[in-house]
């Protein structure tokens, strides 16, 4: 079974690309969504996060305090690295269980904002990068998250790896730039991976 990674910068449209694959019957694992779920539901992970960041990492009802944690770690790269060292291995274990549960599929999709080249310390066979111009990405995020400012979105883009770096890990690029149709690009890859 092929394991295909899908990545792209904020606002590039990787989620919509994954929804198209899902509509074609392909199992899709969203690392970011599962990480959020695990942070809220995995007692061992919760304990490790509180040990690192303190009780403020969770609000009174027990939910992960994402905004507060982000405010702590994004200004402190060393702390962010420690948090990632707690969360990423747990997501990796969860991914492995999910892959085994979907082993009868011809291929599966793993979506994540951060990804290495296929075969580089991962089980991926190919990586798809979803690409869109920065101004379009900013506009999409502002439409999706109206509480964010343009500066905030541009700061996030600046912190992420560059498009050039992302292209270096790509086996395939899907252009989600509103000048090319998205579904035919996904369909062509779907046909390729099914063979």
Description of the structure:
This protein has 195 residues and is of the alpha/beta class. The protein folds into two domains: 1-27 and 105-195, 3-Layer(aba) Sandwich (Rossmann fold), CATH 3.40.50.300; 32-101. It is 54% helix and 12% strand. It is built from nine helices and five strands, in the order βαβααααββαααβα. It has a five-stranded parallel β-sheet with strand order 2-3-1-4-5, sandwiched between helices. Helix 2 (31-41) crosses helix 5 and helix 3 packs antiparallel against helix 5 (77-101). The radius of gyration is 17 Å and the shape is globular. The mean pLDDT is 94.
Q: Write down the overall mean pLDDT.
A: 94
- Range of strand content: 5-15%
Uncertain runs: none
Strands, total number: 5
DSSP helical segment count: 9
Fraction of helical residues: 40-55%
CATH class annotation of the largest domain? Alpha Beta
What is the molecular shape? globular
The helix-and-strand class reads: alpha/beta
Instruction: Output the CATH topology of the largest domain.
Output: Rossmann fold
Order of neighbouring strands in the sheet with most strands: 2-3-1-4-5
